[in-house]
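Human:
Care to share another protein and its fold?

Assistant:
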Amino acid sequence: MTSVTKTLERYRRCCYTPQENNIERETQSWYQEATKLKAKYESLQRTQRHLLGEDLGPLNVKELQNLEKQLEDALALARQRKQQVLIEQMEELRKKERHLGDLNRHLKLKLEAEGQNLQAIQDLWNSGAADGSSSFHVHPAQSSQMDCDPGPGLCNVLKDEHRVGEPINESLG
């Protein structure tokens, strides 16, 4: 029976001991990784402080020159990005300006057309009143309104409410 016990003992040493060694190696590896990450973190914090102009005392001339170059490069990139954003904004504003210019021209043409419509109505009104053959009937209270130059409000009323040949007092009344 001692040979069985010895065999089992050898089996345990072969099978279980390497796992313990693996666990120790893995633990050691994680510890080293954590140490490296901590050192990297501290280095990044120190670099950040240097970039912010803090803790510059211990730096030598070469390190200060490197820091200055990093800052100049970062400033150049920031200026380049700022210029790009400003150019994009100017392009957007130019597009808006062109759109508003087109809209303004369209509205101007529409206003001129409305003015021509009003002029045609006034001419028709005046020609009918001059020869006495007008079918337009004006209520006495409204006649003083027709003697003055009609503004845009009357233009809209005449445009929306009246058709040529319809008596004004029927639709206003």
